[in-house]
Write a structure and sequence with these properties.
CATH class of the largest domain: Alpha Beta
CATH superfamily of the largest domain: Periplasmic binding protein-like II
CATH topology of the largest domain: D-Maltodextrin-Binding Protein, domain 2
Mean pLDDT: 85
Distance between the termini: 58 Å
Number of domains: 2
């Protein structure tokens, strides 16, 4: 009996040994796996795989889709930012309205089907019409007849208006396989292609909404095959949680927005972590809600608010010096930047004087001026998303600074979904000011759709509900102008109108802070917007295991 028991015990011991060995082998294999891990906050995470607003506007989605789906072309690195072909070999145009694209001939979707002009035509026609998230100005195709398939690898289409400049149109569109998406053409924005069949450098392995995206490299990719085998996007509850994961080596870098400025010194002190400081493409501004009938409607009040804001102090307090003052939607290094714009330098005395002359005075001695229209204190709700820690700090600084000129600011900090719902719902005036941050990039022509007259065919991005026929007329002229010098002059005028009318008040241009681990991988590329920004997601090719 004892002998039998001992035999059984020995079998158990052997089984345990085998299991331990297997676990050790599997752990070793896992450890050696060439896997790049990238951290996002929970609010930045992608909830589903629908090709709609979530895919476009969530930070995780905005990085994910260019890795799985090819684009026609992409923007190159600083300092030239030249347009680089992606799934096309080249393009040409004679009049900047009709464009011809020549596709590569060896591109295939993940299921082995070839990528043809039919797929591109399908995407350009149906995707913008299925969801406003993809209805960019540079994808504004006039009608179905304007798309012409020349042959399997040549496509010609005509825009509703001229698209001049060095950058061709239709940069943003993910090329979709027609054979998969055609049955769902009337509801592309709601169709969830769970396998995410694209032609990009990575394929989807596993997805869990709100938590992670697991991708593997496409070994049969038509172009340069990525150096890493896998990429995993992980979501974390906060920036603090991401920071902890970075320090523990659980992630290699942070996706899309990089790290908040407040974390810079902490990362610099950490072992095996470096911080890439890239020229920022993110602009931060106020959107004044001109839909509300209060003192915000008065341009004098908006101008006084700008004189009451100390940008330099804001940059030091919020961004720890990692930002620059901004005065336009155009970057200063661009030749279309207007250097003669009003700067609204910090001058609280002038702000107070303007408000006094405008009849906005403190009638009850409580330190706050009275709104002439309502008879109440000049008190404005400032809408800020909780997911943007730097902007939350910025709002607090603004609150303190505007108190000095007799204006009360009430912070309204909300989650990201609520924020977007508020700013894009015109009938619900849930705020007086909102903070916005966008990345126009060198190809920033689309940014003017934030300003196009709200009642004149605006793209839906007009957060201020601004309406100025002169601006719209100038914008239409600029979009139609082919002569570069004339176009430049019109761009100067657009900037001047915005700076004087102040539907939007440009504040700062934040640097991109990208912490990354140095112990496992190398080849991080410093780009405008940072190596982890969606505008150059192709840099995921460049990251490779450290030798």
């Amino acid at each position: 009996m004892m002998e039998k028991q001992n035999g059984r015990s020995w079998k158990v011991v052997c089984l345990i040994i085998v299991m331990v060995l297997l676990l050790a082998f599997s752990s070793t294999a896992f450890a050696k796996k060439n896997r790049l891990s990238v951290g996002f906050t929970t609010e930045e995470a992608l909830e589903n795989l629908q090709m709609g607003e979530a895919m476009q506007y969530t930070e995780m989605g905005a990085v994910f889709w260019p890795l799985v789906y090819d684009q026609l072309w992409i923007m190159g690195p600083a300092p030239d930012y030249e347009p680089l072909p992606m799934i096309v070999q080249r393009w040409e145009t004679d009049d900047y309205q009709t464009w011809r694209f020549y596709l590569v001939k060896n591109a295939k979707f993940h299921d082995g089907k070839p990528v043809t002009a039919k797929d591109v035509a399908f995407t350009l026609w149906y995707l913008p019409k299925s969801n406003p998230a993809w209805d960019y100005p540079d994808n504004d195709i006039e009608d179905k007849k304007s798309i012409k398939i020349i042959d399997d690898y040549t496509l010609e289409f005509t825009l509703a208006a001229k698209w001049p400049g060095k950058y061709p149109p239709a940069s943003w569109m993910p090329v979709l396989p027609e054979h998969i998406w055609m049955p769902h053409k009337r509801k592309l924005g709601r169709f969830e292609n769970k396998k995410c069949i694209g032609s990009g450098p990575f394929k989807l392995k596993k997805f869990k909404g709100g938590e992670y995206i697991w991708m593997v490299k496409n070994t049969k990719y038509w172009g340069e095959v990525p150096a890493v085998d896998e990429v995993v996007f992980k979501s974390y509850g906060s920036q603090d949680a991401i920071s902890m994961a970075m320090k523990k080596g659980q992630i290699e870098f942070i996706g899309y927005n990089g790290a908040p400025s407040v974390a810079y010194e902490d990362y610099k002190k950490a072992e095996n972590i470096d911080v890439n400081i890239a020229p920022g493409i993110a602009l931060v501004w106020f959107s004044f809600n001109l839909h509300k009938d209060n003192a915000i409607q008065d341009k004098l009040v908006r101008q006084a608010i700008m004189y009451g804001i100390d940008r330099e102090r804001m940059i030091q307090m919020v961004y720890l010096g990692h930002a620059k003052p901004a005065y336009s939607f155009i970057y200063p290094e661009m030749d279309t930047y207007n250097p003669d714009l009003p700067k609204y330098a910090y001058d609280p005395s002038k702000a107070n004087q303007m408000l006094e002359q405008g009849g906005y005075v403190d009638t009850d001695g409580d330190g706050y001026r009275t709104d002439k229209k309502t008879g109440k204190n000049m008190s404005f709700e400032f809408l800020v998303p909780s997911a943007w820690p730097d902007e939350v700090k910025l709002a607090k600084v603004v609150k303190e600074q505007l108190k000095d000129i007799g204006i009360e600011i009430k912070l309204k900090v909300v989650d990201l979904d609520t924020y977007y719902q508020f700013i894009y719902t015109p009938t619900d005036d849930k705020f007086d000011l909102s903070v916005s941050s966008e990345e126009p990039g060198p190809n920033g022509s689309w940014i003017w759709e934030f300003v196009r007259g709200y009642n004149n065919g605006g793209a839906g991005w007009n957060q201020s509900y601004y309406d100025n026929p002169e601006f719209d007329k100038t914008l239409d002229a600029m979009n139609a102008e082919v002569d570069s010098q004339k176009q430049k002059a019109l761009t100067f005028k657009l900037q001047q109108i915005v700076a004087e009318d102040l539907p939007y008040a440009l504040l700062v241009r934040a640097d991109m802070l990208d912490p990354y681990r140095t112990d496992k991988f190398e080849g991080h590329v410093s780009m405008m917007g940072g190596f982890s920004s969606w505008i150059n997601a192709w840099t995921y090719f460049k990251v490779r295991p450290k030798k």
